[in-house]
């Protein structure tokens, strides 16, 4: 536990069940039933934005390749729903063993995760498949669920045969794994080392957020501006192709103190 009463200990304190039920389950249900609860509406808007941007960038046909690594996947698979049709091999990864267990249990069984979200993406993809069929395709493309720590110069610590990927996606992870801009910068450099030259980076995250809540636990993270993110990735050798943000004026809400969110698509020189 950090001095400010917040934690950064994902391996012992991140509750995958609460996270997925709240942010990818009940928030959606409550928003669809009523527009009254602003905090849920903010979370819903963030999710919808991310799903639409992932759909757009993969649907464009520009981003495709043999291997895709999703970094900090957490207990959710939403970041690969659109991607899976455009790549051959998918690697999921997270620092927390309890998150990797949720992913592995899904991958190795007939279980479905985040059905409503998958259906939402179908609307964008104009797919006639069922959720079970689509998730089966996703499972068939997954090659591994890897242990990763983006704060390390060698994020896999030698535990992965593939050293560089064609595409990296990451949702809400790099800022969660940093307390300062210098740490964010080194996380970005460590992630960059896993991407082939000419490879695609698709990143989404939050702006101005110094904490967010999972159950009773508050996680501390680095507060970012658009300028911070752009300058750091340019200095890490990326050409930014797309950068989109949504900003709003908001007090701390029930779940976090974010002030906006962003989506970035960049290519490594
Ligand atoms: C806010 S959650 C995001 C999960 C999911 N990608 C999403 O979009 O909902 C942050 C994730 O980053 C992971 N994480 C935190 N620190 C990390 C690190 N140093 N290396 C890799 N993953 C980390 C956490 O375990 C957690 O799953």
Structural topology:
Blueprint: H1 10-13, H2 16-33, H3 38-59, E1 65-71, E2 87-94, H4 97-107, H5 115-125, H6 131-141, E3 142-147, E4 165-171, H7 181-192, E5 195-207, E6 211-214, E7 217-220, H8 226-235, E8 238-247, E9 260-268
Parallel strand pairs: 1-2, 1-4, 2-3, 4-5
Antiparallel strand pairs: 5-9, 6-7, 8-9
Helix pairs in contact: 2-3
Bound molecules: S-adenosylmethionine (SAM).
Q: What is the CATH domain class?
A: Alpha Beta
Helix content: 25-40%
Enter the CATH topology name.
Rossmann fold
Can you tell me the CATH superfamily? Answer: Vaccinia Virus protein VP39
- The secondary-structure class comes to alpha/beta
Strand/helix succession:
HHHEEHHHEEHEEEHEE
Bound molecules: S-adenosylmethionine
Q: Output the number of helix runs.
A: 8
CATH architecture identity? 3-Layer(aba) Sandwich
Question: In what order do the strands lie side by side in the largest sheet?
Answer: 3-2-1-4-5-9-8
- The whole-angstrom Rg is 17 Å
Summarize the biggest pleated sheet: 7 strands, mixed
Q: End-to-end distance, in Å? A: 39 Å
Strand content: 25-35%
The unreliable regions are none
Please report the total strand number as a whole number.
Answer: 9
Our count of domains comes out at 1
Name the quaternary structure.
single chain
* Global mean pLDDT: 93
The backbone outline, from C-alpha atoms, is: globular
């Amino acid at each position: 536990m950090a001095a400010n009463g917040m934690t950064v200990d994902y391996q012992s304190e991140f509750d995958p069940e609460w996270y997925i039920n709240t942010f990818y389950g009940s928030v959606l249900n409550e928003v669809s039933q009523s527009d009254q609860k602003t905090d849920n509406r903010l979370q819903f808007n963030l999710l919808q934005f991310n799903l639409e941007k992932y759909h757009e960038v993969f649907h464009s046909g520009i981003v495709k390749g043999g291997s895709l690594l999703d970094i900090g996947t957490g207990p959710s698979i939403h970041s690969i729903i659109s991607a899976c049709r455009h790549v051959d091999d998918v690697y999921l990864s997270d620092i927390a063993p309890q998150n990797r267990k949720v992913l592995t249990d899904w991958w190795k069984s007939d279980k479905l995760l985040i059905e409503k979200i998958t259906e939402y993406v179908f609307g964008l993809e104009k797919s006639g498949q069922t959720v079970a069929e689509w998730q089966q395709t996703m499972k068939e493309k997954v090659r591994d669920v890897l242990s990763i720590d983006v704060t390390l110069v060698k994020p896999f610590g030698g535990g992965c045969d593939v050293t560089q990927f064609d595409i990296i996606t990451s949702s809400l992870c790099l800022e969660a794994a940093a307390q300062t801009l210098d740490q964010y910068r080194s996380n970005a450099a460590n992630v960059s080392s896993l991407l082939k030259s000419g490879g695609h980076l698709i990143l989404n995250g939050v702006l101005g957020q110094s904490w967010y809540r999972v159950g009773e636990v508050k996680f501390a993270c680095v507060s970012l501006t658009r300028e911070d993110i752009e300058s750091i990735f340019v200095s890490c050798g990326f050409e930014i192709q797309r950068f989109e943000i949504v900003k709003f004026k908001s007090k701390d809400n029930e779940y976090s103190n974010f002030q906006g969110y962003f989506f970035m698509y960049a290519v490594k020189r």
